[in-house]
Design brief:
It is a single chain. This protein has helices at about 5-10, 295-300; strands at about 30, 35, 40, 50-55, 60-65, 75, 80, 100-105, 115-120, 125-135, 140-150, 150, 160-165, 175, 180-190, 200-210, 215-220, 230-235, 240, 245-250, 255-260, 265-275, 280, 285-290, 305-310, 315-330, 340-350, 360-365, 370-379. The chain has a 6-stranded antiparallel β-sheet, with helices on one face. A hairpin with a 5-residue loop joins strand 16 and strand 17. The chain has 3 domains: about 5-190, Jelly Rolls; about 200-290, Immunoglobulin-like, CATH 2.60.40; about 300-379, Immunoglobulin-like. It is mainly beta and about 375 residues long.
């Protein structure tokens, strides 16, 4: 492999622009002796420099380029294949790929070179990024060639050029009719834009796991340039909803997440955002999920309540095994009269009192599974 005069060849073909979607990357379709969607030097005069071959990497066809000779030509002429459209001058291409690749066989004889170049330009024709290389040896088996893009600007490209060449680029001639380049299955890899990703959509959630104590989220990825997804959640309480907080970051192209950090008896809102180096997308649709109180809590709720100190004097601490939402707490004296009352929101509460010494009953009325009565002593 060696460097060659890539800039010279780019200058010769700089007016030809490719489509936003590279057409006919496997060269299965042909029109007027050229691969459909491509331009070759055979369009000047069809001398067979660009031909279809059944020696394909995949599918039925590939393309083979070779130098040409004809009466009246003083030298062997080079052949070029370019992803261009002479009539429309191409359309916009606004991706920033990481690399350019294709499958190839080639043979270089007598000082010729084979070349492959992909160039990204702006509307003015300035080069934003380039990938490619030149060869002067022989490869008889299909080889996957990959060229990383080198960028000299942060601009979003406007157009893409791809050029394949067999011959001597400085002279646009050739030394041998035996040189050739076979190309198949072209791809641009790791494409991204200089814009923030589109918002994910179609977010749905379902309960899963033992006692339905986990939340499975699924959504639709609507962008091809995200670096990751952000999962945000907020919890609804008796005092209203808190703010959304980030609970996870998911790799690009994944479309589901299992939240196993929820609590039974709670209601949550979820939303998803996409993120890349340019920013964060708008949020997806927001969904609401209520996690049921687990059966194991229902069966042992009262046993898992912690009341202290007991005996008490001026205050009482109460810790619950689950979050209570607008539960009602009453304290009864030995005559059955209510001597204290308050609402509970959370997993703990604190009660101050000035009761005479004696036996009291603490009763809490919450959800179906969160009801109990416990005695305590005031000394």
């Amino acid at each position: 492999m060696k460097n060659a005069s890539l800039l010279f060849l780019l200058f010769i073909l700089s007016s030809f622009i490719v489509n936003a979607q590279v057409p006919n990357t496997g060269f299965e379709s042909w029109t007027n002796n050229d691969p459909t969607g491509w331009w070759s030097t055979d369009q000047f005069i069809d001398l067979g420099g660009c031909k279809s071959t059944t020696d394909a990497h995949s599918g039925s066809n590939a393309v083979i380029l070779s130098p040409i000779s004809a009466p009246g030509l003083p030298v062997l002429a080079a052949s070029a294949l370019s992803l261009t459209n002479l009539e429309t001058n191409g359309i916009a291409y606004n991706q920033r790929p990481e690399s350019f690749s294709f499958w190839s066989k080639y043979s270089v004889v007598g000082g010729d070179v084979v070349m492959a170049v992909a160039t990204l330009t702006n509307k003015k024709g300035d080069i934003i990024g380039v990938a490619g290389g030149a060869y002067d040896n022989q490869v008889e088996e299909y080889t996957h060639l990959t060229f990383p893009f080198t960028y000299n600007s942060e601009e979003t490209p406007d157009s893409l050029q791809i050029i394949f060449f067999v011959g001597i680029p400085d002279e646009l001639s050739a030394n041998s009719l035996e040189s050739y380049l076979i190309i198949d299955d072209i791809s641009l890899n790791g494409s991204s834009t200089n814009e923030i990703p589109n918002a994910p959509s179609e977010l749905i959630g379902s309960l899963t796991g033992e006692d339905n104590q986990n939340v499975l989220l699924r959504w639709a990825d609507k962008s091809d340039n995200e670096d990751n997804f952000i999962v945000e959640r907020k919890q609804l309480t008796g005092r209203g909803a808190a703010d959304f907080v980030q609970i996870a970051t998911i790799d690009a192209n994944f479309e589901e997440f299992l939240d196993n950090t929820v609590e039974g008896g709670q209601t949550y809102h979820y939303q998803i955002k996409a993120q890349n180096s340019k920013g964060i997308s708008p949020s997806s649709n927001v969904i609401e999920i209520t996690v049921p109180t687990p059966t194991r809590i229902k069966d042992t709720f009262a046993d898992n309540i912690d009341i202290f100190p007991n005996p008490a004097s001026k205050y009482l601490n109460i810790n619950f095994p689950i979050v209570m939402n607008n539960a009602q707490l009453n304290i009864y004296n030995s005559l059955g009269a209510v001597v204290a009352h308050q609402s509970i929101n959370g997993k703990a509460t604190f009660i101050q009192f000035d009761f005479p010494a004696g036996l009291y009953i603490l009763k809490v009325q919450g959800s179906e599974h969160a009801q109990f009565s416990k005695p305590f002593i005031v000394k």
